[in-house]
Each structure stands twice: as structure tokens, then as C-alpha cells.
Amino acid sequence: MSKQKCFSPAEIVEQAKEFDGTKVDLAKSLGIAYSTFQRISKQEASAELSAEKLGKSAKKRKTLKTSPYDDLEKILMGWFKEVRAAKIPLNGYIIKEKALEIAERLKLQGFSASNGWIDRFKKRNNSCFKSIWRIR
């Protein structure tokens, strides 16, 4: 029995761009069935978008899971970037409070800024809450 192969969105895009032969030959060179390759090639456009959105972590992540609260996350990420540019240290509690404030403003029902949500938010946006050190 052969091992199951798992390709990241970035790997799918790379392989498709590099290979000039037929689709059957490409599937054989990857060691996957042609039907699997067909499914992957249908997903190529979304794989390119995923690879662009994931950036540097594209080779690590196999899927791109989006949040059901995209509007909230876009606003929160904009605020997050502004605060980080001002070199203000952030922690999970501050992010949680700001997320709840934005959710209230957007009138989102059922949103709770749990620790799990904060962890997934950090993973989706490749961000961390490390303190910023200043030399005096």
C-alpha cells in the first residue's frame, strides 16, 4: 500500500508551472493517480489564491480555513497593523476586547472572542504578540 501524498497550495502551483508535459505524465511524476491530479488541477486557481494569501507559511499549511467573521477580522487586522506600527505592545486580552468592540459595532450575533478564536486568528494572519523591545 502506498503512502498518501499531501500537497500544499504552493506545491501544487509550483508543480503545475514547472511541468510542460501531458497531465498524465505529470500525475505519474508526482506519484498520484490521474483522477487525483484532475481534482487538484480544478483547484489550481483557488490554490494560487491560497498560496498568495498564506505568503511565507504557504509550504507549511495544507488548507486555508477562513473565518466566518471575515469583516471583523479585516477591521481588526487593520487596527492591529496600526498599533504594531506605533510600537505599542499587545496581548490576547487587548485583542479580545477590541474584537468584542468591533463585533458589537458590526452587530454580529453569537461572536465570542475565545482564546481558541484568538489562536486561530494569529495563525490565519501569521501574527504573534511578542513584546517589542526598545533600546534606550
What is the topological layout?
Blueprint: H1 9-18, H2 23-30, H3 34-42, H4 44-54, H5 70-85, H6 92-106, H7 115-124
Helix pairs in contact: 1-4, 2-3, 5-6
Main location: nucleus
Domain HTH CENPB-type: 60-131
Subcellular location: Nucleus
Describe this structure in words.
The protein is mostly helical and about 140 residues long. The chain contains seven helices and no strands. It has helices at about 10-20, 25-30, 35-40, 45-55, 70-85, 90-105, 115-125. The chain folds into two domains: about 10-60, Arc Repressor Mutant, subunit A (Orthogonal Bundle); about 70-125, Orthogonal Bundle (Arc Repressor Mutant, subunit A), CATH 1.10.10. It is elongated and about 55 Å long. The longest helix is centred in the middle third of the chain and has 16 residues, at about 70-85. This is Major centromere autoantigen B. Pfam families: HTH_Tnp_Tc5 (PF03221).
